[in-house]
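Structure first, sequence second, as always.
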């Protein structure tokens, strides 16, 4: 067997903070405008999610959904039928010898559909899904549809080299130009431990 060493990939997201806002923060203001920082952090989270679930070929990263040997389970636009699709995914995992508990990573549209849906009798759909999975559900921007995966541990390996940190780029009379940066590597150790639900 040939071992392949994965390099650490660097993610960076630039943002700017007005010098006036920094002075206000120094004076103890509670309403400092951190919207640029928030947007930069969201871009980093989205990039991480895309790398982990869909892959990042330029960095040599295969995503969970891409690596799975299982056929994708097509979800229904009728969210009342969603439990059947999730149960099919869990059955594929069980037939492959992959134990639970299982988790469900939901892309934004699927997450909204699941949260807003109640089954016959008013029972919340997300509670039914939790019983099928015996585990949690999470909103995961960057995911297409959804992914059911084992949470038994050891199947998906995320390595953080340099943890998320803030760096200084430059400043001018109006603003300070900063960036968020991290290095990471990700490896799917057990490809059969996940099933994608997407169209």
């Amino acid at each position: 067997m040939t071992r392949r060493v994965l390099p650490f990939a660097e993610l960076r997201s630039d943002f700017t903070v007005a010098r006036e806002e920094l002075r206000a923060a120094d004076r103890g203001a509670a309403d400092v405008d951190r919207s640029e920082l928030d947007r930069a952090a969201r871009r980093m989270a989205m990039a991480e999610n895309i790398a982990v679930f869909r892959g990042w070929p330029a960095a040599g990263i295969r995503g969970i959904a891409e690596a799975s040997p299982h056929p994708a389970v097509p979800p229904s636009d009728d969210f009342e039928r969603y439990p059947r699709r999730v149960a099919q995914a869990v059955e594929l995992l069980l037939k492959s010898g992959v134990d639970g508990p299982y988790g469900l990573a939901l892309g934004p549209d699927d997450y909204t559909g699941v949260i807003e849906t109640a089954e016959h009798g008013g029972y919340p759909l997300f509670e039914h899904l939790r019983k099928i999975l015996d585990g949690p559900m999470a909103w995961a921007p960057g995911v297409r549809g959804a992914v059911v995966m084992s949470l038994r541990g050891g199947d998906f390996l995320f390595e953080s080299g340099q943890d998320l940190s803030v760096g200084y780029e430059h400043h001018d009379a109006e603003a300070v130009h900063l960036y968020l940066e991290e290095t990471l590597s990700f490896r799917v150790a057990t490809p059969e431990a996940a099933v994608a639900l997407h169209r």
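Margin note: The longest strand covers residues 175-188.
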